[in-house]
Amino acid sequence: MIKLLQHTSLVILLTLNSLNAQESDRKNKYGVLSGQVRSFYMNTINKDSLRDFEALAVGGHMKYQYQVFENLKFGIAGYTSINTGIQDLSIPDLTTNRTSRYEEGLFDVTNVNKDVIVLLGELYLNYRLKNHNITLGRMKFNSPLVNGQDGRMTPSLFQGINYQFKPNAKNSYQIAVFNRIAPRSTSRFYNPGESIGTYPVGRNWEGKPSKYQGNTHSDFLAIVNANLAITKHIDLKAWNYYVDNISNSLYLKPKLTVSNKFDIQLEWLHQNKIGNGGNPIDSLQYFRANSSDLLGIQLNHKWKKTKSAVSISYNYILPHGQFIFPRSWGREFLFSFQKRERSEGSANNHAVVLYYNQGIDLNKSGTNIQSSLSVGHHWKPDVTNAFENKYAFPDYTQINLDLFLNSQKLKKFRPELLLVAKFSGSDVPNNPNLYFNKTDLFLINLILNYNF
Q: Which residues, other chains included, contact 310 with Cβ-Cβ below 8 Å and sequence gap of 6+?
């Protein structure tokens, strides 16, 4: 049955794409059909005899847009992920009694036994004037902390209203309010408070399993953003995330452009508790600290002739409070971010990450590989310190190699190979629960994307 669904989905999507290309002159009259067919293979190789995991998902999304009036557009998109069943992910590792961490994210993390995700992820009206843009309904949204985080099969999606104002090419403003969220790798929209806890909850300050899942009360998420050109060489991006009854997070990112090859960026994230942090009972609260702060600096240099760039970044989360933000709402695009890991849940945390990006031409016909190599070391608080280390994560070094193939002959086909190696520090206790699915592992990701 699964194989039949796979082949049927592929045939339908490719056929629609062919018809869409052949009848491009009818797009304005009948709307625009677009989408993506995706297969995603993931394999985690854990240390020694600890269980290895692998999974293969197929699916994608299909989107239809129709121009109702000159300035009014209607959009609808469905998302799907199908488990091909190459391994039973419900079987845990015998030593730790834990299941897969990464592979489950290809499917429904709330029910690993569900073989098929079908989600009406986008359903919106968009009204656009010269400098104004307003979207109402279910939509994608992109920001440093709230975003699609689509490194799996289905992205995070948001329901509400988003207004954007762009008075000129260098300045823009935005406000969004969301009352429902469909976290990545789930099959429905949740109330914001409900959506917190669909991903691992870690420990509370007393070192016991957190109990905020299902006990967090929040009715909406409000986001305000301003991108400003302060001077010719100084830009500022500012974001504020107000999570009803939980927290307020202010994120500032100034940038100094020294030359067309070199720039310096800073970042500051300041969080405050709002209301009762999600629940009046301390043991059920999601956000317990009064405040937290994160500081960062990044140096960037690029060489246009060789299509290469290098950056080095440093982040520090101060000791007085954990950096806490729902993992289910997006990747944390901080300076020290590397794919397949994050800093959320830590205090008194240092991280240094080096990125090197290089474009490699394979032939004169336009085929090239875009490569991204990152090497980072993360100094974590002691694993026994539950206040500073929510997920009991040891010190680790991470190396990522991310490769994208671009071809002028196959413009719609974009495969990606992501290789991840993670190594724990020498002082980590010899306890598999502290490194299983966290460090001392090798992770293979092969993603085949066909966009139409």
A: 300, 301, 302, 354, 355, 356, 357
In sequence order, the β-bridge partners of residue 152 are: none
What is the arithmetic mean of pLDDT over 378-383? 94
pLDDT over 90 at 31, yes or no: yes
Q: How far apart are CA 316 and CA 437, in angstroms?
A: 24
Q: CA 208, CA 283: separation in Å to the nearest integer? A: 9
Characterize the bridge pairing of strands 132-139 and 157-165.
antiparallel
Domains contained in the chain, CATH given: 2-451 (2.40.160.10)
Measured in residues, the chain has a length of: 452
pTM across the whole model: 0.92
400 contacts: CB under 8 Å, gap ≥ 6: 338, 339, 340, 372, 373, 374, 418, 419, 420
Distance between CA atoms of residues 400 and 372, nearest Å: 8
Q: Residue 27's pLDDT is what?
A: 56
Both structure tokens of 277: 């942090």
pLDDT in tens, 196-215: 999 999 999 999 999 999 99
Burial of 37: CB neighbours in 10 Å, binned 0-12, 13-18, 19+: buried
Give the model confidence (pLDDT) of 328-365 as tens digits.
Answer: 999 999 999 999 999 999 999 999 999 999 998 888 77
Under 8 Å between Cβ of 434 and 441: no
Cα torsion angle, 52, 372, 297, 171, sign: negative
**pLDDT higher than 50, residue 316:** yes
Partners of 350 in beta bridges: 316, 379
State how far the Cα of 277 lies from the Cα of 274, in Å rounded to an integer. Answer: 6
Q: Which of 399, 268, 379, 387 is closest to 334 using CA atoms?
A: 268
Rounded-to-integer distance, Cα 22 and Cα 12, Å:
15
Work out the pLDDT band at 124, boundaries 50, 70, 90: very high
CB-based contact 126:138 (threshold 8 Å): no
Q: Is 169 helix (H, G, I), strand (E, B) or coil?
A: coil
Q: Locate tokens 């016991």: which residue?
A: 208
d(C-alpha 57, C-alpha 42), whole Å: 9
Q: In the numeric block, which tokens belong to residue 219?
A: 């009715």
Contact 107, 203 (CB under 8 A): no
Q: For residues 429 and 436, is the Cβ–Cβ distance under 8 A?
A: no
CA distance 295 to 21: 48
Whole-angstrom CA distances from 294 to 289, 357, 382 are: 14, 26, 19
- The residues pairing with 83 across neighbouring beta strands, listed in sequence order, are 57
